[in-house]
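Thought: the user wants the 3D structure for the chain below. I'll pass the sequence to the structure tool as-is, report back what it returns, then summarize two notable features.
Action: structure_tool
Action Input:
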Amino acid sequence: MNNLEKYNSIFVDTFGVDEGSLGADFTSEAVENWDSIGHMNLMAAIEEEFDIMLEDDDLMGFQSYEQGMEILKKYGVEF
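Observation:
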């Protein structure tokens, strides 16, 4: 599985959504299940899958599917 497939799988598993719904409109404000608990579950799954430890600013700034990809690039995760 490549990094994009892993990333998408985390969102699908965490929020129980179809992979087709992932994209520019997939934001914390638009997704009902993306509450504080959903956010922490997402962050934990991403850290575990990519073997990284996100900095506090990145944890707080991770508010959308696309924004998350940009943040992960800072940690050497290529899509």
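Final Answer: Structure generated. The helical segments are 3-15, 36-50, 56-61, 65-73. The chain has one domain: 3-13+23-73.
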